[in-house]
Amino acid sequence: MSGLIVCATQRSGSTLLCELLKATGVAGVPNEWFQHFKDTGLADQPRQYLAGLDDPYVRSLLPPLDPGTPESDFDFEKVREAGTTPNGVFAAKIMWSHTDDLWARLRGRTLEDVFGELRYVQVIRRDKVAQAVSLWTAIQTQAWRDGDEPRAEPVYSFAAIRHLVEWLTVGEQAWTAWLAPRDPDVVVYEDFARDPSPTIEALTGVPASPPPLKRQANGRSAAWVARYHGENAEAA
User: Fold this and answer.
1) Which of 124, 143, 166, 188 has the greatest count of CB atoms below 10 A from its CB?
2) Which residues form the active site (predicted)?
3) Nearest alpha carbon to residue 41 among 66, 78, 5, 7
């Protein structure tokens, strides 16, 4: 079995896919091994998602950037060991927003040069507004998974959601272009979430276990999506 690289944008449903892949025990460990930025040594911070949006109100909702500590080195061998299951299969999940630093770390090599034969899986979400609402909520609460304790009560912002719709769309399109010559498997969240089993079995040859995560979408999310569509129509 080839290694697996799950290519995604934030809040696309990739966590559900990766948790189900991990549960098989034969498909590697597709964590976000490359999520820390070279300049800070830290994962995404709230303000980084909204970079380029000149909106004082949105900025007032977000903590200041932590300068962190610049990365001095990156150990691909350690990633390989951590991301490999006992059967020798490596897996990783990569967000498009992390690729600039990943390409720099590779120093002209390809992912295949480092990890061997790879199979690529692109996760997409058709409803970009729902995806952006989910991301905007998680940015504010820092509750990324079911069970995480929210750090703040999220508030609605048309400007923030519109920015994130565009940002997520650009990231997905960039993945699609990069993956075009690599013949990826494409997983559509809205279809996959209804019945994950066929996708997991097609990728691994192993039936899917029951989903390990609960959906975080709720009445507030639906109301924000509807409100955004209404305000967007008025602005058109």
Assistant:
1) 124
2) 32 (proton acceptor)
3) 66
Q: Answer yes or no: 172 catalytic.
A: no
> Active-site residue among 32, 166, 172, 234?
32
Pair 92, 79: CB distance under 8 Å:
yes
d(CA 22, CA 89): 11
Two tokens at 133? 């609402």
Tens digit of pLDDT for each residue in 152-172? 899 999 999 999 999 999 999
Kind plus residue range of the DSSP H or E element containing 48: helix 46-49
Q: How far is CA 51 from the centre of its chain?
A: 17
86-121: pLDDT as tens digits: 999 999 999 999 999 999 999 999 999 999 999 999
| Residue 145 contacts residue 15 (beta carbons within 8 Å) | yes
| Structural domain includes residue 145 | no
73 burial via Cβ count (<10 Å: 0-12, 13-18, 19+)? exposed
Edge-first strand listing for the sheet containing 185-188:
91-95, 3-8, 118-124, 185-188
Q: How confident is the model at residue 218 (pLDDT cuts 50, 70, 90)?
A: confident
The torsion defined by the Cα of 230, 231, 233 and 236, in degrees rounded to 10, comes to 180
The CATH number of whichever domain residue 105 belongs to comes to 3.40.50.300
Structural domains counted in the chain:
1
Which of 87, 96, 86 is CA-nearest to residue 34? 96
